[in-house]
Amino acid sequence: MDQRVHPMAPYDTTPQVDFHSQRRRIQSIALWGVALLTLTLVVLIVLDILLSVIVKGVPGLNLAIFATPTSGIAGGLQNAILGTLVLIALSMVFSMPLGILGGIFVACFAPARLASAVRFISEVLAGIPSIVIGYFGYAVMVLQWGMGFSALAGAISLAMITLPYIVRTTDASFTQVPGAYWEGAIALGMTPLMAVRTVVTKLAAPGVMTGVLLAISIALGETAPLIYTAGWSNFDPSLHLVKNPIAYLTYVVWTYLNEPFHSAHQLAYTAALLLVVIVMILHILVRLLQRGGVKHS
Amino acid sequence: MGIARLRSKIFQVAAGIAAVSPLFVLLFVAVVLLKDALPAFRYQGFSFYTGLTWNMGNAYANNVVVHNGVQAAPGATFGILPFIVGTLASSLIAIVIGVPISLLSAFALVYKVPPRLAKWISPMVELLAGIPSVVYGLWGVIVLAPVIANQVGPWLAKLGSVIPFLGGSIGSGFGLLTSGIVLAVMIIPIITATSRDLLAQVPKLPIEGARALGMTSYESMRHVALPLAKRGIIGAIILGWSRALGETMAVLMVSGNASNYLPTNLYSPISTMASTIAALLDSAMNDATSLSIHALALIAVTLLVITMLTNLLARLLVQVGRRDIGTEG
Asked: Which of A262, B13, B178, B204 has its CA 20 to 30 A from that of B195?
């Protein structure tokens, strides 16, 4: 390759690179073939997970599931469904105001340094394994604060997990609003609060909603932070938010699968089906919101 | 106007307080964990990380042992090397299986799949990211574990005479390989989606230029797109790895929950650090000296530090990667 050619040597006209090399074309086609096959594999795995859950879960699906609580290893899922709803709603009471306000602050008011610091901290918090939060909830809320296994301890643990997601998505959707809207509102004499409430929020709302829905979907699917904070109960949730354990759907999936009884397995499958269906609905809502949001800006 | 200004100020201050709440949460968690973990470290020292035996001691004994000023049940020793090995081995398998699949899928999605089809496939990949981990565990138990025990395992074991760790007893299908594959499936959507977004932002012009110079489409991807997106993609991989390190429920359901011995082959039952906390907290509550709980806190601290470091490195690389491509100043 490195041989110097004598300047007076006749000019070699054969191309150094074979532009139509069969080998290179085959290499290209083969690689993309493999890539497309892998993508097909991923799609097949998704379908297999969904189908397994549907095939196993549907036979257990009936109205009684929604109307009766679990009793031992049989019964319905009413307590778990209601408990999941209570836990999610209660966790949102904590994480939504904090997350949305925090996100607005980062996007609209914070100096650049502070903004990037908060973003950084949120990323760190989002990266903490959920079982670590679960341990924290157990040590601090259940034992130290004397809440016992309870809806409140579970909900606060969930809120700690969803908070950084809400901060991040709120921040992102407010940051995307063109600065001119903000400046226009201020120029018209609005206070920053009025500007946020009237002009900017209208444009950022779909993005914020997306974040909240994703946070709900995360809270719905969590188990590890709840095992030692929410506990488990065969009864429907009550108004007692402390010292009363509460049921939730993911618990059914992982514990009832270990029981050697068919009725327990069926409950686990059906609980998994309900979880997947709700997650799918949430994802479809997110898609619709995103489409609406794009049209706006 | 005065009142409006005041209300605005109050709002801003409230928002500012809300914005630092993640910091408070993080500090609170870190302080509590460190404080809880300290007695375990004083009792066990660095042998915590090198010991093979996890024994909470005799909870029913009347006498307590005191070591370095820490009370413990007689016979208590806390060594988490098997859990560390389980965590690293299962996440490594997840990376080895998950990364090629994710990257090839991302490249296919960006460069080869027609946009109309990609519009259907992308949401499916994202749905995979949203599926609760217990559902992955359920899939691992009812679908994957039997396949590993009956088909994949026996087939791989035939290679055992050539490749170490592949031979030996296949067991029930619950163990290292199954955990690794379930984790791989869980991190595929993370790596695929992040790299897809990075690749989609690689400018078209250099790639078209490469094609015009006679590169095949594989070569233009390999020599033009990949170098531009490389650091970001490495970030995406570490992000997936971090997730695999901290995953609890899915692993707990398919790992076979072994303790006190290191995996001997690819099918050995294992435990990870995260799954151990979930599995043992219940019995640790019976330890009157509560040293067992402190030991679990020390595992939590270790896990926290590892996942925080990997996560930060990943985020940093993804951000640098975006800058490489030129979408973020």
From this structure: B178
Class of domain B86-266+307-325: mainly alpha
Confirm if A176 and A207 have CB atoms less than 8 A apart: yes
| Mutation for testing the A interface, residue in B24, B113, B135, B139 having most A CBs under 10 Å | B135
Task: Provide CB contacts within 8 A for B50, sequence distance 6+.
Answer: B79, B81
* Cα–Cα–Cα angle for B241, B321, B247, rounded to 5 degrees: 15
Q: Which CATH number belongs to the domain containing residue A285 in this structure?
A: 1.10.3720.10
Q: Which domain holds residue A173?
A: 79-296
Dist CA B214 CA B212 (whole Å) = 5
> Which residues in chain A (62-81) have CB-CB distances under 8 A to chain B?
none
**Residue type for position B111:** Y
Shortest alpha-carbon distance between residue A63 and chain B (Å): 22
Mean of pLDDT values over A288-293: 75
Does the pLDDT value for residue A294 go beyond 70? no
Q: Tokens 């429907």: give the residue.
A: A236
What is the interface pTM, i.e. ipTM, of the complex? 0.91
Interface residue of B21, B34, B277 to substitute, partner A, most A CBs within 10 Å: B21
For B260-297, letters b (16+ CB in 10 Å) and e give eeebebbbbbbbbbbbbbbbbbeebeebebbbbbbbbb
Q: CB under 8 Å to A15, separation ≥6 — which residues?
A: none
Angle separating helix axes B2-44 and A78-104, nearest 10 degrees: 120
Instruction: Assess whether pLDDT exceeds 50 at residue B131.
Output: yes
List chain B domain ranges.
Answer: 86-266+307-325
Q: How high is the pLDDT of residue A5? A: 56
Higher pLDDT: A217 or A73? It is: A217
User: Per residue in B79-103, pLDDT tens?
Assistant: 999 999 999 999 999 999 999 999 9
